[in-house]
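Postdoc handover notes: sequence design on the structure in folder B. Input tokens:
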């Protein structure tokens, strides 16, 4: 059996269980279609429904769909418009074609005719803002119980998914090295962004999220994507958070660089060590929140060691000082989406775990399980808005913080596959090692 045939067997079994548990006979998954901008006839780039590409690596064929009834082979309706305005999307080659009934359609109105009564008995999963799908008679539209069940289980990846994520990480690592070289060559943020895309031969709509390409102070803006067009006179530091896609699966990697050897380089090295120590602690059965707290304590120690804040790691954490420097979550599930959903699900019955009040931006609160893939992305930044709360606090060394401000901040992000007994796989570091 190929890795893909094992994968689709797992997906099929997960759908069988989800449909049975939620009382649905069958499912119809619409790949989706691009949305036009307001009062405009130009569409935003197409993003395929993640539960469609879970079955088949078809990501560029809007208005395609999949019908699945337990006990039967899935049917893929591949939309190939007869249209002289656009290039016809190609039928992606691959093993998947041997595991589905492939029906090529040039008009989606042919789907109800092909399925007949079966469509009205199926749960519909997908966006339905447009006709004709908006008016189709179906058994249910995006039933939350069914979707939650599926999202809960897809946190654990199949071998085929892991292969795709390894590949996506190698692409991202290749592009990251090109971006790093462009930074050291003195490029602007926009030029670095272009170097990243060119290194892996993709356009902007073909990376999983807007790349964060930040020089100097901009590194402190967590979702910075302004891309300055002029290189600053002095480019001291560079933070890049950028990914890649392979067969619909995402990589999400962050690296930070210092132009000079000196205290900022030492701080990067300390953060890098702290991130790797944290990854070595990860074991099945422990709640992800515990790792978030453990990473806070390591960052608190760095804050004290480098003289930014006074106190023990515990006191720095308890007083909320470390949250002023590390204000986001430790990481998130990743796979078909850069932020795979399901991080708040307590079980496959759809019960949820409330956001943690102390750490509201942490979007993974589940227990760690073998086969889950998530990111580990600690950060340390000078965010003045957050530091204002501590103005005048003598535990803070404001002169030392002022030295760090021109460098923005540091984030280091890898994706980790949870192994048995802590035998974890670091997809991102392995990717850099494989290509260097
Ligand atoms: N690149 C988005 C994130 O790291 O979560
Ligand atoms: Mn991330
Ligand atoms: Mn990221």
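Designed sequence:
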């Amino acid at each position: 059996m190929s890795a893909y045939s094992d994968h689709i067997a797992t997906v099929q079994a997960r759908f069988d269980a989800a449909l049975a548990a939620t009382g649905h006979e069958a499912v119809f998954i619409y790949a989706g279609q691009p949305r036009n901008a307001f009062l405009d006839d130009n569409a935003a780039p197409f993003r395929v429904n993640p539960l469609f590409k879970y079955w088949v690596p078809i990501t560029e064929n809007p208005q395609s769909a999949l019908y699945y009834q337990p006990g039967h082979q899935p049917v893929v309706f591949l939309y190939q418009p007869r249209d002289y305005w656009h290039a016809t999307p190609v039928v992606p080659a691959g093993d998947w074609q041997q595991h589905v009934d492939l029906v090529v359609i040039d008009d989606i109105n042919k789907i109800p005719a092909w399925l007949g009564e079966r469509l009205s008995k199926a749960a519909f999963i997908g966006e339905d803002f447009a006709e004709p799908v908006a008016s189709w008679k179906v058994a249910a539209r995006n039933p939350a119980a069914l979707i939650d069940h599926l999202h809960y289980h897809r946190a654990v990846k199949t071998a085929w998914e892991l292969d795709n994520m390894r590949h996506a990480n190698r692409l991202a690592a290749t592009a990251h090295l090109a971006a790093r070289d462009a930074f050291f060559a003195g490029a602007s943020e926009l030029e670095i962004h272009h170097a990243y895309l060119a290194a892996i031969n993709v356009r902007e709509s073909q990376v999983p999220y807007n790349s964060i390409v930040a020089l100097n102070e901009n590194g402190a803006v967590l979702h910075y994507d302004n891309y300055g067009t002029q290189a600053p006179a002095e480019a001291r530091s560079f933070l890049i958070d950028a990914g890649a896609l392979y067969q619909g699966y995402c990589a999400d990697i962050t690296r930070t660089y210092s132009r000079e050897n000196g205290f900022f380089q030492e701080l990067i090295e300390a953060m890098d060590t702290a991130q790797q120590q944290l990854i070595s602690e990860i074991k099945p059965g422990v709640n992800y929140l515990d790792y978030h707290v453990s990473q806070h304590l390591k960052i608190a120690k760095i804050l004290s060691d480098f003289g930014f804040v006074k106190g023990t790691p515990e006191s720095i954490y308890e007083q909320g000082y470390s949250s002023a420097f590390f204000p986001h979550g430790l990481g998130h599930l990743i796979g078909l989406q850069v932020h795979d959903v399901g991080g708040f699900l307590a079980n496959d019955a759809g019960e949820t775990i409330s956001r943690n009040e102390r750490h509201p931006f942490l979007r993974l609160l589940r227990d760690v399980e073998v086969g889950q893939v998530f990111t580990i992305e600690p950060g340390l930044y000078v965010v003045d808005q957050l530091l204002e709360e501590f103005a005048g606090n003598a535990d803070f060394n404001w002169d030392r913080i002022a030295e760090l401000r021109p460098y923005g901040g540091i984030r280091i992000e890898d994706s980790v596959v949870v192994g048995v007994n802590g035998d974890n796989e670091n997809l991102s570091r392995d990717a850099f090692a494989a290509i260097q």
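Context for whoever picks this up: The chain has two domains: 3-154, 159-435. Don't rerun without checking with the PI first.
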